[in-house]
TrEMBL record:
Sorted UniProt keywords: FAD, Flavoprotein, Oxidoreductase
The name this protein goes by in its record: NAD(P)/FAD-dependent oxidoreductase
Cofactor entry: FAD
FAD/NAD(P)-binding domain sequence ranges: 3-287
Flavoprotein as UniProt keyword: yes
Pfam families: Pyr_redox_2
Originating species: Metabacillus arenae
Length: 355
């Protein structure tokens, strides 16, 4: 019996399981899923968990069940490609015939002194729970500094404003205008929304150091009762340690078939893969669809696709609390109530109709 080992129950690997089970998995293949949690986590909603507007239950989805799917709970420590073994932190060892690495990402601190030690995070469900406790235990009128005004920072700031209107929120943004990578009309809408809702945006920020309850912006200290870091991501540390070819962001270069060059038994999906788009749940799922096609072909001893059509991503949707949002769908900017409703609908469909 061949063993397909899947590391991580993120968006990409959940799509792999959805496609393989129950009908596409050959009779001589079993699957071992490795994750430290007994459920799939809706990472795109961690900002709301941390802000306190949704409960822990809302970001959990049950893992699939199948008689040839085994689940091992634990954290990956090392991957030995020569011996085709996965070592877990608890000492357990799992052998594989094929391996899909979907271990996700971690915060990237850009070598800013004190950033890792003195800031909160929303990168994992565990860290989001800690951030929730810290933010919601703050006294009235306390100041929260959010470092990084990408999608995560923007959604966290807006959701925290809805949860705790008494807090003073400062959002540090590197650009001259918030969400500068988006069309100007959309950026201006978000910037105006923050101004109207009393959130202070500090543009052209450059965080040089972080101490306990102090952020240094361009060398000047800014005091805060809590500091949340949303200023960049990097691949999981297990992938960073792998001796494979990577891009300048540390993501793994892959063949067209999404396996390591020279090793057709190891695939990388999601945030750790070097792809022509920014990491996202959509991208991981699109990549997973192609990985499943390749696996099934190889298991059936059939020629694998030599190329795939470009990924067709539908766009980006972001929320500004529960009643407003923004988005870029098919290169068309959306603002106001409609993108917020769309995001709620997409989330509902994923949670209740994705297997």
């Amino acid at each position: 019996m061949k063993n397909l080992v899947i590391l991580g129950a993120g968006y990409g690997n959940m799509r792999v399981l959805l496609r393989l089970l129950p009908n596409q998995l050959p009779d001589d293949v079993e699957i071992t899923l490795v994750d430290k949690n007994p459920y799939h986590c809706l990472k795109t909603e961690y900002y709301a968990l941390a802000a306190g507007t949704i409960s822990d239950h809302h970001v959990r989805v049950s893992l699939p069940e199948h008689d040839r799917l085994k689940t091992r709970y634990g954290s990956v420590f090392h991957i030995d490609r020569e011996k085709k073994l996965v070592h877990l932190e608890d000492g357990a060892v799992i052998s594989y015939d094929d391996l899909i690495i979907g271990l996700g990402c971690e915060d990237k601190y850009h070598n800013v002194p004190g950033a890792e030690e003195n800031t909160l995070s929303i990168q994992t469900i565990d860290k989001s729970r800690v951030t929730y406790q810290a933010l919601n235990n703050l006294s009235a009128g306390a100041t929260v500094a959010i470092v990084g005004a990408g999608l995560s920072g923007v959604e966290l700031a807006s959701e925290l404003r809805e949860s705790r209107k008494d807090l003073k929120i400062k959002l540090f943004d590197r650009g001259k205008m918030i969400l500068s990578a988006f069309p100007e009309r959309l950026s201006r809408y978000v910037q105006t929304w923050f101004e109207e809702h009393g959130i202070e945006i500090i543009n052209e920020a450059n965080i040089t150091k972080v101490e306990q309850n102090i952020v240094y912006n361009n060398g000047e200290p800014v005091e805060a009762d809590a500091i949340v870091w949303t200023a960049g991501i990097q691949p999981n540390k297990v992938v960073r340690k792998m001796e494979v070819d990577k891009d300048y962001q540390g993501r793994v270069h892959l063949t067209v078939q999404h396996n390591l060059p020279g090793d057709e038994h190891v695939y990388v999906v999601g945030d750790c893969a070097s792809l022509p788009h920014s990491p996202s749940a959509q991208l991981a799922e699109a990549q997973a669809e192609q990985i499943v096609q390749v696996l099934v072909k190889r298991w059936n001893n059939e020629p694998v696709p030599e190329k795939f059509p470009p990924f067709k991503l539908k766009g980006v949707l972001g929320s500004l609390g529960k009643k407003a949002g923004f988005g870029l769908v098919n290169d068309r900017p959306l603002i106001g109530r409609v993108p917020r409703l769309l995001k709620s609908g997409v989330l509902w469909m994923y949670k209740y109709h994705n297997g």
